[in-house]
Amino acid sequence: APADRAIQTGSPLLQMPLKSGFIKVNAFKIRGRCLSTHHVFNQGLPLINFNLYKSDPLLKSFTDHFADPLATQVLNNHGVKCGTDGLMHTARIAEKNKPELSQFDIYGRRVDVIDYHDAYHELMSTGLEAGVSGYGYSSSTKGSHVTRAGLLYMQNQMEPGHCCPLVMTTAAILPLKKYGYDDLVSKLSTFQYDHRNVPIDEKVAITAGMSMTEKQGGSDVRANTTTAQPEDLNKKGNGNAYRLVGHKWFTSAPMCDIFLTLAHTDGHKTPSCFIVYRWIPNGGGRNTGFKVMRLKDKVGDRANASSEVEYEGAFGTMLGEEGKGVKTIIDMVQSTRLDCILGSAGGCRRALQHVLMHATHRQSFGLPLVDHPLMKNVVADLCLEAEAQTLTALYFSAVFDAANHNYCLPTHAPGGYANKTSHENDMMELFRIGVAVGKYWVTKRHPGFAYECMEAFGGNGFVEDFPMAMLFRQSPLNSIWEGSGNIIALDILRAKSSFSILLQDIKLACGMSSEFDSFVANMERSVLAFEGLSPVDAQRSARFLADHLALALQGSIMLRYTDARVAAAFVSARLSRDRVSSGDNYGSFVYDADVANFLIERNMPQFD
User: What values do phi and psi take at 192, rounded to 5?
Assistant: First the structure.
């Protein structure tokens, strides 16, 4: 920023000129007291009014090639908006003001309403009107799902909690579309937000939540005890009305208009999928059998409400085939897993941006922090990790897009995107196994990344007023949601039939790096060895398999789709034989000074 530029933050106390890159204030008053004992200097600058899109080298380069024709304008506009001081302030207010449950009105009538701060609604409106939920399905244009991924990735960097209903709204579209709920699909995919607690018939835009797990089952949804009985015994199956009885331990975003849920019907050992409504369609009134019992007091994700719900004859309609609820929701689960990767990649990008601003404007021992060799090495390693996470998320967004729009991806990008293509028919199979591997790895890397960024601020990082507190508290969520580490590792193990497709994709980068080739050869031998293991031994080794598949996959994607210097650094820092001896902590791999400078410079926030 120019040395004489004022920082505009909305607070008169912080509209100060910059002197030699630092904020310097001779004296100011707080509640009538003048603090004149010291000058405030050598502090970082607030990260505001910057362009999230232009500040992200991989987001820009990847979407230039794989997103739809309108992506550059759409993503740039959203990147500018998400980086404004006003919306960043709104995001902080939304996170600090938790939703509140009102079970009854003042007259004692049951209402089950959750009240959100106006800041939350502003964030929701910003996201939905930009297309964060509906963009991918609102157009049949190739690349639309990649553009939506970019929108969500940036939206998450403002405040991640409100993104939960945005993600679930997207995820509900595909199963609803598959089973003929076109009226709901059109209202879920529109670029509008209507938070009124009124019947769906009176709204042009709605949102969707999930209500799956129960106390005794957790991830084992087949252990659910909720039951569903048809209103008319002669009308069963998809689209018909049922009444549900039971409980749900986690119902996310309970002010949504519809909820996808699981319940058992007579004669079936496995559950069916249902849509539960806040208001019964066609003038049926409030769904009084849907009762919100309490809100969860969570470690993070505070702007979003998560609740416990009782179904006491709650109205719902069946979605999909009876007794095949798990099959019905599989597309939804895959979608939310992809968005977990995008969420963690966005959270790491946001933390990195704060570190870059702090390390370049804070001095110690006569130098900016980033100019000290050790700190430079740590920051460069964080830049490399953030780029790998972002590219993993965007790559599988592109694979998902290819599977849904029936085309195949170029497999290389050195010196331009080549014409060589992968197999079109394999795109969905590649997505399903790849998104599980990516979700396992990227989301589990998130907490350690957030902690390392927190440490860069010293004591300030551990103070709630600073941004790292929220980012750190949020960091474990995506690994826990939609299948925690063990669940995902076991899903990968059960998908052995898809290993050949994943290995085929990984090996597209073979020949581009001898270190990579060596890692892949060892990893492939490990995969083959799993065929001879007993079920017990295979399960004990599931995380080992997931780790190595993830690293090989990231190495392949980096070699194929990013700058050669960045890709080479990733292979050396993450896949080489020296990795074990160099250690796993960030900054333990020693970067060439020129490569470190390149990584840092290309990831610096860009101010319009």
Answer: -140, 165
- Give the pLDDT score at 413: 55
CA angle 580, 582, 583 (to 5 degrees): 70
Measured in residues, the chain has a length of: 608
Instruction: Round to whole Å and give the CA distance between 490 and 509.
Output: 27
Tokens of 97: 């003001």
Bridge partner list, 244: 228, 314
Token pair, residue 104, equals 């009854």
Token code pair at residue 308: 């416990």
Residue at token pair 């998902």: 400
Given its phi and psi angles, is residue 546 left (phi above 0), alpha (psi -120 to 50 degrees) or beta? alpha
> At 32, is the pLDDT very low, low, confident or very high (cuts 50, 70, 90)?
low
Average pLDDT, the chain: 90
pLDDT at 29: 52
CB of 185 closer than 8 Å to CB of 266: no
407 closest CA partner among 392, 389, 421, 393: 421
Residue type for position 229: Q
Q: Global pTM? A: 0.92
Cα-based torsion angle of the residue sequence 248, 252, 258, 262 in order, rounded to the nearest 10 degrees = -30
Tokens found for residue 399: 């694979």
Phi-psi region of 146 (alpha: psi -120 to 50; beta: other; left: phi over 0): alpha
CB proximity list for 241: less than 8 A, separation 6 or greater: 230, 231, 232, 235, 315, 316, 317
pLDDT at 510 over 70: yes
> 113 in helix, strand or coil?
strand
- Mean local confidence (pLDDT), 114-128: 98
The per-residue pLDDT for range 448-465, each reduced to its tens digit, is 999 999 999 999 999 999
Answer whether 163's CB lies under 8 Å from 155's CB: yes
Is the backbone of residue 312 left (phi > 0), alpha (psi -120 to 50) or beta?
beta
Residue by residue, DSSP assigns 223-287 as: G---EEEESSTT--STT-EEEEEEEEEEEESTTSSEEEEEEB-TT-SS-EEEEEESEETTTTEE-
Q: What is the DSSP letter of 604?
A: S
Counting Cα atoms < 13 Å in the Cβ hemisphere of 125 gives 12
> 517 and 510 in contact (C-beta within 8 Å)?
yes
Interatomic CA distance for residues 458 and 443, integer angstroms: 24
What is the DSSP secondary structure assignment for residue 534, as one 8-state letter?
-
Query: What percent of the chain lies above the pLDDT cut of 90?
Result: 81
Closest of 150, 55, 45 to residue 603, by C-alpha: 55
Q: How confident is the model at residue 11 (pLDDT cuts 50, 70, 90)?
A: very low
Specify the residue for token string 């009105």: 105
DSSP conformational letter for 214: -
pLDDT value, residue 412: 64
Q: Could you tell me if 597 and 383 are in contact, meaning their C-beta atoms sit under 8 angstroms apart?
A: no
Structure confidence by residue, pLDDT tens digits, 245-303: 999 999 999 999 999 999 999 989 999 999 999 999 999 999 999 999 999 999 999 99
Residue type, 563: D
Which of 173, 86, 90, 98 is closest to 124 using CA atoms? Answer: 90
**CA 229 – CA 236 distance, rounded (Å):** 9
d(CA 224, CA 244): 12
Is the Cβ–Cβ distance between 125 and 193 less than 8 Å? yes
CA distance 305 to 11: 30
Tracing tokens 């993503």 back to the chain, one arrives at 75
The amino acid at 575 = L
Give the pLDDT of residue 127.
Answer: 98
Which tokens hold the place of 154?
């940036």
